[in-house]
Amino acid sequence: MIIPRQKVPDLNISLLDQEKYILSSQTKGKFNLLVFYRGLHCPLCLDYLTELKYLTYEFFKRKTKIIAISSDNEDRAQQMYNKIGRPDFPIGYNLPLSTASAWGLYISEGRGKTSVGIEEPAKFSEPGVFIIRTDQTLYYANIQTMVFARPSFKGLLQALDFAIEKNYPARGEYVENF
Fold it and tell me: What is the pTM of this model?
């Protein structure tokens, strides 16, 4: 389990049209927004990432870099990138399921074709949204077992405004065996 105010596992992810995304080298700005999505087969992921596309500049204004990541292969990631409409944030692919698990993401098994007629991979990670400080410590996490009811990007922007203005600390850092 990753804990607020503590270092998160490093990420070393392949990107479309680039070499690699290495989280530990993302040291400029205030935050990194990591959006783990299910993959090309997921129509809700397409809607969610399209919403993010239209708010990308608002995150950039708050000195927050964005990456969207899935366990899809390069071809499927490229198809998602094109469906989103070529967003101004990178798309990472080939997320190892062991890395997804280290981040606390839930893993599902494919169940055939989805409502949009695209085959689910044999195994893939469920959604997660993380805001990481540039010192690689966890600020915010939302990990889901299902595709539904994801956090609003507009709500996250409001939260970032508050956090930046008030220098609000990450919460949930207390750990004890109860």
Answer: 0.96
